[in-house]
Amino acid sequence: MKPAPFAYAKAKSIEHAIELLGRPDGEARLLAGGQSLIAALNMRLSAPKLLIDLNGIGALAGVAVLDGRVEIGALTRHVEVERSTDILQHIPLIALALPHIGHPAIRNRGTLGGSIAFADPAAELPACLLALDGEVDIEGPKGKRTVKADAFFKGLFETALGPQDVLTAIRIPAAVKDTRAGFAEFARRHGDYAMVGLAGSARADGKGLADVRLVYFGVGPTAMRAKKAEAALASSKLDEALKALAADLSPSDDVLATAATKKHLAGVLLKRVAHQLMGARP
Ligand SMILES: Cc1cc2nc3c(=O)[nH]c(=O)nc-3n(C[C@H](O)[C@H](O)[C@H](O)COP(=O)(O)OP(=O)(O)OC[C@H]3O[C@@H](n4cnc5c(N)ncnc54)[C@H](O)[C@@H]3O)c2cc1C
């Protein structure tokens, strides 16, 4: 299929993009890597009157490490994140997750901001952002604001972004000596969206773990924390964490798997990620 007709404008700056989003002549959409949006247009799931291209705004791209935090600009391509030594050193969880996003052609164009803004419930990066207790910088007609990941993902493809907002960057605390990261997902073929995935972070605390965050994706309308399992794992009780998953997760059947399969896989992934967090070989 082909998209419905639309006008195209290249934004010169973030302010210009916000101004264009406010035009009264109908629905407008921001275009970043186009890896989700163009497919939605071609299938006529979305029919904006205006596409606003962010790709000329250099200020939106890049990785910077500042005051113990890593800032990643919205327009930074997946491939740049994947190859960044700063990401490898300071956000190992994202380094583990990145190769699971689609295929190289998709990672060459797709952007970190597009993935977070799109908020696909089976996507890797929203889960990582939540597991890492990160935050999102947003610029809109009323100025700038920062939203914690916990408050950013609101529902199925629904976020804290308003109709005239631009996601400008995300910020994540840089890993320290005791930081632990674990990541696992199950997909039918490498590069497919996950049937179930799990992003985990924690701090080594003596022989155990503290600040455990376990975020599942592909099991609900948004990436979601398994808080009861987190508490059990922080007490080094993997068996209890596995039992707690029944209370934490209530997936529905979808086109990829039944709810029962997803629950089973969630347990398998928890064992793998728990071993990574505890520093053992998976
Ligand atoms: C075959 C295929 C397989 C894929 N597999 C995976 C996968 O396994 N895991 C995964 O996570 N993703 C996957 N993707 C999606 C890919 O990661 C996309 O790059 C990502 O979802 C969207 O990023 P984008 O830059 O392409 O955004 P676009 O497609 O340009 O935009 C997506 C949405 O976000 C909005 N948007 C974009 N940037 C901003 C911004 N700065 N501020 C506000 N709103 C913004 C757009 O208006 C649009 O609504 C796959 C895509 C394809 C085509």
Polypeptide structure, described:
The protein has 282 residues and is an alpha+beta fold. The protein has twelve helices and 14 strands. It is globular. The termini are far apart. Bound molecules: flavin-adenine dinucleotide. Residues 29-37, 39, 54, 74, 101-102, 106, 110-111, 113-115, 117-118, 120, 123-125, 161, 166-167, 193 line the site of flavin-adenine dinucleotide. Residues 29-37, 39, 54, 74, 101-102, 106, 110-111, 113-115, 117-118, 120, 123-125, 161, 166-167, 193 line the site of flavin-adenine dinucleotide (FAD).
Strand content: 25-35%
How large is the radius of gyration?
19 Å
Structural class: alpha+beta
Helix content: 25-40%
The ordered string of helix (H) and strand (E) elements is: EHEHEEEHHHHHHEEHEEEEEEEHHH
* Strand order, sheet with most strands: 4-5-10-6-7
Give a count of the beta strands, DSSP E runs of length 2 or more.
Answer: 14
Q: Terminal Cα separation, in Å?
A: 44 Å
Annotation field: number of helices: 12
Low-pLDDT ranges: none
